[in-house]
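Chapter summary example: a protein plus dihydroflavine-adenine dinucleotide.
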Amino acid sequence: MYAGAKALFFALSRSASLKRLASRYGMAHEDSFARRFIAGETVQEAIAAARSLQGRGLLLTLDYLGESVRTIDEASAATREYVRLIDVIVASGIERNISLKLTQLGVDIDRATCVDNMRRILEPAQRSGFFVRIDMENSSYTDLTFQVFETLWQQQYRNIGLALQAALRRTEGDVQRMNELGARVRLVKGAYKEPASVAFRQKHEVDAAFLRLMRLLLDHGVYPAIATHDESMLAETRNYAAHRGIVLDRFEFQMLYGIRRDLQASLVAAGHKLRIYVPFGRQWFPYFMRRLGERPANIGFVVRSVLGERRS
Ligand code: FDA
């Protein structure tokens, strides 16, 4: 079921007609279904959402949605958008932290182009004190992502970090590699449909790996981010930190915009740092489908929202 739902929603995410339908209804109104997970299609909407999160004591990272671009021009356009986003964030006064995907910056086309695009973003980001997190995409990109990351690290960019996925069998080695570099990791379970040869398929296996990696990061990592909405993962992390005497500002939790807002409030009240990943932009469909794949029950509110709109 765990891998099955992801596979189903992955297949649906490639349907052009479903994408057209979703694009028509998903963000049309204030209460349209995609708005639960996506802050808006414009940067102004994202900044407004970020301000409101900051007002509740939350940290944030902004993600300009987009992935799998096919041409150098598209990759350049996405790079320019990120450079513009940096200026807008600075002008707005919100926290300086962004997340991005390498397939948005042309890694599929040519690795050197992608490294150049990253540098075009990292230069102004570094000057203005931003942290830049590289999201991890499906397992066919893990090596490439590391290659780009390590090239940039060797070029002395230090305002960068990577997301690593507990679902992949290789990740323990990757966590050790990042710990040795002294580079920051965001630990996630993994959102992609993966073959059993490279990934754990059962929830209990992924959860066990997540906890092993969490301990490795808390003991030896540099300011790790433990990114999950799973109450048992959160409780185990808090217990482990308390047991090892790890103070609360040595790590942070992270959650996705719109998910488990109840837990967000209780973690902040308990003195934890909690960063919210705030996605925005017009290319929201694949991101949205991954959120449905994680929790098929979400389909219920989509159906209700569309039926409601058609009646109104
Ligand atoms: P799990 O899926 O077991 O869910 C635990 C509970 O959380 C559920 O019972 C439910 O209550 C709630 N929940 C989880 N997902 C939900 C949803 N979609 N809708 C409603 N409730 C939901 N992945 C990746 O492959 N690469 C990446 O770079 C990132 N980046 C990233 C950043 C941040 C800040 C977060 C929090 C997550 C990611 N992810 C990611 C996604 C991650 O891999 C994973 O798919 C989701 O976080 C869901 O897994 P949980 O750890 O929440 O556990």
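Key point: The domain at 2-307 is CATH 3.20.20.220 (TIM Barrel).
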